[in-house]
Design goal:
The chain contains 10 helices and no strands. With about 270 residues, it is mostly helical. It is rod-shaped and about 115 Å long.
Length: about 270
Amino acid sequence: MKNVPGWILAVTLSVAFLFAGCGTRPEQEINNAQGIIEDLKNQGASLYLNEGFEQLNNELTVIMAEIEAQDKKLIRSYVKSKEMLAQMMENAENLGQILQMINDARSVIDEISKKDAALYAANEMRIINDDFSMAINEIKQQYPLPDKNFERAEDMLASVKNNAKELAPVISGRKEEARNRALIAQKYMQDALDEANKTLDMAGSSPEIDAFALRLKIHEDSANDIQGAIDAEEYLSAFEKATLIKENIIDIHDQVKKAVPQIQTLKKPQ
């Protein structure tokens, strides 16, 4: 080696170092790429952004084929593979940002749905879900285009998220109104029941009156379930049941008074 000119040795070493650097398999970059694809899958990319997600998987397949081709060479260079991995990671991050917006909007919609939105804001929820679907379709339409632009879809998703948030206090207000209506219906039902029982007590006993009393007892037992429905926040159901029971009680009360003319002067329930 002492007879080799210094400049030749320097060039040789430089080339050796260059090839050594280029010949290092990009294991960390591969792991990062595989990891981000798995993360996107877990976040629902295949559900909402299937075309974009498939593109990423296809990109990684092509990249791995390039890496495996270099693995078989005597002098390897992974420069192209690293560039491809870098581009794929950028694409994955862009898809991840869009997916985050989708999941944020979906999360707000799901949270609102837990607040009995189907009962108290069915039309508004239908519109919000339709707008959400339109935003997803807008994103899907962009993927085949060479110059993708997701600004409109991002605006649509932001609007969906805001509309869903603004619906929360509306639902709470309507639910409170339904509670008040159920409580009022329960009171009217109980007033009707008290009046009917008073009339039956004054009517005395006979086969016909006893039959009315038995029918009234059935409705009285049903009336006891109304408070349970209110406690369970089933206000719409409680209102409907209380109203129906009240009407049945009033009907029995009217029949009792017809059967016993001498108590016609009793006050009819409200």
